[in-house]
Write a structure and sequence with these properties.
The complex is a heterodimer of chains A (106) and B (121). Chain A has 106 residues and is an all-beta fold. Chain A is 0% helix and 46% strand. Chain A has strands spanning 9-12, 18-23, 33-37, 44-47, 61-66, 69-74, 83-91, 94-97, 101-105. In chain A, strands 1, 3, 4, 7, 8 and 9 form a 6-stranded mixed β-sheet that branches. Chain A has a 3-stranded antiparallel β-sheet with strand order 2-6-5, with no helix packed on it. Chain A starts with 8 loop residues before the first strand and ends with a strand. Chain B contains no helices and 11 strands. Chain B is globular, with a radius of gyration of 14 Å. Chain B is 0% helix and 54% strand. Chain B has strands spanning 3-7, 11-13, 18-25, 34-41, 48-53, 59-61, 69-74, 79-84, 93-101, 107-111, 115-120. The chains are: A mainly beta (106), B mainly beta (121). Chain A binds chain B through residues 1, 31, 33, 35, 37, 41-45, 48-49, 52, 54, 86, 88, 90, 93-100, and chain B through 37, 39, 41, 46-49, 52, 60-64, 96, 98, 100, 104-109, 111-114.
């Protein structure tokens, strides 16, 4: 079965840039989506289809995808960005979520 | 305005069957491109996709849980039902339903608030 691996945690100072990688075999050929998950809340999509932002998501959020790694980038990180982030793809008739990355704002 | 709302028991006993209902509004379950997925999150753990049902009634399941899962829909009631048999304490967690938008690359674009389910041993 297809697997997506993410770093367990990323720590970043306010105003700096956070990059979260999502590793998977040939993920560069897939549509990758990214979700923000805060405790007690439903997930929210922040990037869809690799590099598209839904309305209401700040331009600080961007995505890229190539080879075996997809990346979510959060520029000018704010305290409100502290959350868990998950990548997600569709593969062989199943949806797959990444292992999740906790972003901590120092 | 698209909304989804999960409902079901907060507590089930070991070996019982869990039945959850997702009631949707703002979109049609039979309209091309619309699907509903179920996702769960055990306490302190990652999101796990469970099952999906497409507009044409095609169904997809997490391979590791396939033998225990059934998903169905009642278009007239705007409801999607998930059944998970032989519940175990490891199935404790928050269960979400989400709309899957095929026209945006199968993104889960709208989510319910989730319903917490505990399994007693």
């Amino acid at each position: 079965s297809y697997e997506l691996s993410q770093p367990l945690s990323v720590s970043v100072a306010p105003g700096q840039t956070a990059r979260i990688n999502c590793g998977g075999y040939n993920i560069g050929r897939k549509n990758v989506h990214w979700y923000q998950k805060k405790p007690g809340q439903a997930p929210v999509v922040v990037i869809y289809r690799v590099d598209n932002r839904p309305s209401g998501i700040p331009e600080r959020f961007s995505g890229s995808n190539s080879g075996n790694t997809a990346t979510l980038t959060i520029n000018k990180v704010q305290a409100g960005d502290e959350a868990d982030y998950y990548c997600q793809v569709w593969d062989t008739s199943t949806y797959v979520f990444g292992t999740g990355t906790t972003v901590t704002v120092l | 305005q698209v909304t989804l709302r999960e409902s079901g028991p907060a507590l089930v006993k070991h070996t019982q069957t869990l039945t959850l209902t997702c009631t949707v509004s703002g979109f049609s379950l039979s309209a091309t491109g619309n699907s509903v997925s179920w996702v769960r999150q055990p306490p302190g753990r990652s999101l796990e996709w469970l099952a999906a049902i497409h507009w044409d009634d095609e169904k997809f399941y997490n391979t590791s849980l396939k033998t225990r899962l059934t998903v169905s829909k009642d278009t007239s009631k705007n409801q999607v039902v998930l059944r998970l048999t032989n519940m175990d304490p490891v199935d404790t967690g928050t269960y979400f339903c989400a709309r899957v938008n095929a026209f945006s690359g199968d993104v889960f674009d709208f989510w319910g608030q989730g319903t917490m389910v505990a399994v007693s041993s």
